[in-house]
Amino acid sequence: MARATDAQVRTWQDEGWVLIDGLLSVEEIDAAAEDLWLLYSRPEEFHAGGGASRREAFLGGVDDRNLFRSDRIEPSGPAFRPEQFLGRSLFPFPGSGRLNRLAVHPHLVDFAERALESADLRLYQLALWAKYHGVANYEQPMHQDHNHSVVPPRSEPGWWHLEGYLYLSDVEEGTGPTRLVRLGDSGGRLELLPQPPAVAPELYAAEIAAPGRRGSFLAYRPDVFHRGVDLTRPGGSRFLFGLGFKLAGQEWIGYDTVQPRSSVGRFTRFVEGCTPRELALFGVPRPGHRFWTPTGLQAMAARYPALDLTPWWDGLHNDQAPIAATGSVGETGESNLEAHPRNQ
Ligand SMILES: O=C(O)CCC(=O)C(=O)O
Ligand SMILES: [Fe+2]
Prior knowledge:
Layout: H1 6-15, E1 17-20, H2 26-39, H3 43-47, H4 52-59, E2 88-90, H5 98-101, H6 106-116, E3 121-132, E4 162-167, E5 179-180, H7 183-186, H8 201-205, E6 208-209, E7 217-220, E8 226-227, E9 237-247, H9 265-272, H10 276-280, H11 294-303, H12 310-319, H13 321-325, H14 336-339
Helix pairs in contact: 1-6
The structure holds 2-oxoglutaric acid and fe (ii) ion.
Fe (ii) ion is lined by residues 143, 145, 226.
């Protein structure tokens, strides 16, 4: 397990996508995968027809947000089919918390920061995606993901965002490794609609499969043509953690929002284990941000009792040092120093 190399960062920037083999260790993935089995049937169980509640949850959970609407769903060949999107689960996940922690793994965040050339990023997509052989024909047409933004992507540095799949299971020929086209092979064109083979045979001719062991990370830009393919191996399955990073302030980009699910205990526990830098990925104002007041930090302590708020308290001191030093009160009418738990 190692950080992404500079060459891998450049490949993402220049060619539009990169598969980073073993960005996370197999051991880290296997430890986190224990939480996965609270949500999903293990492959053996699923294919043996067991695990009724998990199977029902899987089969009942179709997510049709990313469908290209079409009156006619082709029975075979590349097409978007509703059943392909069964098995999506939104962050935060139940269990030990290890699966949730993967979203902010230092190697992932480090790669995203270097690829996007900014330390002020937001995580805008966080969802698991499970596929089992035989559930659907998973073969998709070539497309770009125009469903991550309400405006067309721009291809220049400063406007990029990063779509990614962290592999939670080994993805091999037979378990649906994504096919992708290098930017140089698609000529930088944008197409809102999927491109069937008859329309764009050159994209299919240029596609490259991205198999990798668990712990690998597939990162691609929104202007990259790619597609899912069918799982052909009997008993096969594929588990991914979809993670999207964008630059702070780019409100036109979005996918999953955590706010509706942020008042549950599992989110509380996740936040309590995070650093300010990790929480900034979720939009939590950093220490020193003018959002924070003593009252605000006390409310934060009540909501997340085990979160170490020292950096935020210190930021309050630093940011408003002249006010605190003279003993006067800030705009909110509160003294900063007195409200610090260490001074009480
Ligand atoms: O599942 C995959 O390999 C790719 C899926 C995909 O590109 C999509 O659904 O937009
Ligand atoms: Fe896609």
